[in-house]
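Let us work through a complete example step by step.
Step 1: write down the sequence.
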Amino acid sequence: MVLTYQDLAEVFSEKQGVQGDFAFYTVTDMAGDIQPKGLFIPISENSGSLSEAIAQGAIAVLWDKRNKLPNYTPNHFPVFFTDDSGDAIVQILTRYIEKLDGEATAKMETTNFKFSNKKLLNKNNESYDIAVMLKKIIEKQEKIHEGRG
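Step 2: predict the structure and record it as tokens.
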């Protein structure tokens, strides 16, 4: 299972840009990471710029609504707004785990979660939850991929 636009639309009511039936194959907090069909979640100034994330393949962003969205953001670019990025990550991971708990097939594609800035996550109250959830996702994905072999 992959994370979809609809999954995020159900979690985040404030959004702008194009709506559609598309999937996210990568979720990351670092703009410089290659992120094919990616959802970029900047959690600090060290995460990098939205323009860099777009250049690396991001097709949407989860944006802290306390920060001004850059002027260069395309009007059609999907933006989901949140009050708290750490809480939003927990909500996304929870939603994704719920999807993975459904029936898995051997040919199922999965979303790749890459949170490389662990120190920034640690300053968040949800950091333990995030680490546990990421471990659970990795374990479920490994079981799915074992079924392919």
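Step 3: interpret the result. DSSP finds five helices and eight strands in the chain.
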